Amino acid sequence: MTTTPPPPVYNGRYELRRQIARGGTAQVYLAHDLLLDRPVALKVLFPELSADRAFVERFRREAQAAANLSHPNIVPVFDWGESDRTHFIVMEYVDGEPLSAIIRSQAPLGAAQAAAIAADIAKALSYAHRHGVVHRDVKPGNVLITTDGAVKVTDFGIARAMGADTQVTQTGLVMGTATYFSPEQAQGLGVDGRSDVYALGVVLYEMLTGRPPFSGETPVAIAYQHVRETPPTPRSLNSTIPESLETIVLHAMAKQPGDRYATADDLRADLERFGRGQAVLTPSSAASAARTTTVAAVLAPPTTTVAVPNSQTTVVEAIDEEGFGPRPKRTTVWWALAAVVLVCGIGAIVYTGGRSLGYFGGKTAAATFKAPKVTGMRLSAAEARLRGHHLVPVRGTTKTTPNKGTAGTVYAQNPHAGQRVRAHEQVTLDYYRYQHAPVSVPNVSSQGDTYQEAAAQLLLQGFKSTQLPVKANSPTQRQGTVISQNPKAGTNQPYGSTVTLSVVSGQSYVTIPNSIVGQSQSAAESTLRQLNLLPKTRQATHPSSTPLGDVIATIPTPGTALKPNSTVTLVISSGGVVVPNEVGFSAQQAESDLQAKALGFRIAAYSGTSQYVPGTVAQQEPRPTRVVNQGTVIVLFVVGGKSAVTSTTPGTSGPSGTSGPSGTSGSVPTTTSLPGTSGTSGTSGTSGSVPTTTSLPGTSGTSGTSGSVPTTTSLPGTSG
After folding, report:
1. Using an 8 Å Cβ cutoff, are 382 and 429 in contact?
2. Which one of the listed residues 137, 155, 266, 270 is annotated catalytic?
3. pTM of the model
């Protein structure tokens, strides 16, 4: 397996795992905090921005300011630092999906769902504004929806402290995302919380219609439209949008900051009123005014363009305010009249809404009324609406869903919508809970990967991991590698569950090689020492066909895995002779073969029937191919027995037969010497003589009868 380089580690603490996003100013990675053992999101600035000292210093101060923001709807910043000539921010890793992805796959969103998401964003912005921080880059890509439906605002990377006198970039350039620029931001003017309100209005517009209000080929072209042009009304693109919600959107997107919601909290309050079914406090004239606004001047085309995606944070040239002509003057009288009308309108709305809720002499709390419909709404918005009607929301049963967009949405209520209820009565809400479909566990235990490599693969598939140290059971298993996993690869397991990885820890084992058998003693000892094993020898107690002095076996056997410095016994051959096959050969030939191999022999009569002629070996003992020591006596069973042998046995030669009287044959005593046997009167190892009678062919006699000649045959290892 090829060796893979280790993943980068920032400041010796944050280990990069994989890239999860790329913006206009930085790349965002999933990283692991080695100190606190937790996943984090690591945002690394592009080198060109890290080279700008003024930007980096500004970025550092703003990161510190964002780190002080602690709110349920804000992704917290943990750390800031510098590594490898770039700068980075460490944030909480949120297991969720960007709002931009939900808009792409599900837009237009329902009015209740869009209003609830926008209200949670407004809560986060309101908190940041109260702590003196303006986000300046509010967009769907910087809003995360968690698996349980919670809303999290992230990336305060270009946020600016209100009242700060320094600029993020050089004069004449503006940082942000053109699609969501406020007009004053596009012109390079001062920004405050109302700039974030405008951007949130654009986000809400996009959730309801499925498209942003302005689009163009370059960021500068889009910024120009924010300053001078009027977008299509939301209801002209989606007629199902309630008119009151359209009023909220257009009021938030007013060109002049003074014509918008004064604070993000005011916007949140109106969105929650809409969610409860109450009248909103935004002047209804805002919508009609937006519909009749026309462009009064023409701006010369911008001279600078930036070829980047319009959804990314970028730096663009500020729009020249002088190109838009003089603004209409507002006299003090008109301001006073507008204030009176606004106060009267707000008072009427408050009075009407109060009576509908039992205030100002309206119906009493004891009277029954119809339960509002909250099915299809996000859980938090539904609960807020019920509380607005003096009802008590109670969370009921949940159903799992693999769709993140519907997670946290109410699918049933009890009492049902329209059913008569009383104030302070409980309403049970059943809602969807997100649960990822089961995932097949990848195989990370058969590739020789390290724990870090295997854990990264599991993380990509949605699994957590933990390691279990184990001892090696094979010499191929290296220290620190994964050798098994539980659950096994290929099984379907819940998304986010933990896989236990068995990791080699401790001393590796050494295997006795099979090739050591057959080596010489010296070569085998050298092989074992090279493997950090200790050789030991012993002589074999049985004969072997392996040459004398070679290894015939090991203890333990070859293939056994041992710890280094373990002892291995080499069994050394003491030599031996393979018994030849003499069956079918003459006794004389067999005797000659056995003597050549230093083996003894003895003739015995073959008692059975045989196909062989007399004097031929029909059987032998030990049988052929057996391995025996030198000097072993081989018994030859000859057809016809000893009487059929037609020549003297090898050994001493007897004299020629003499002619006997009256036609009888002469007899000649003969002696056959066999090695390593005891004779009658000899001591151990000397040849003795045993008188035997061998039938020899006689010479021609008178009467043609055979004579007998006593012979003596020396047999090894027997008593004479």
Report:
1. yes
2. 137
3. 0.45
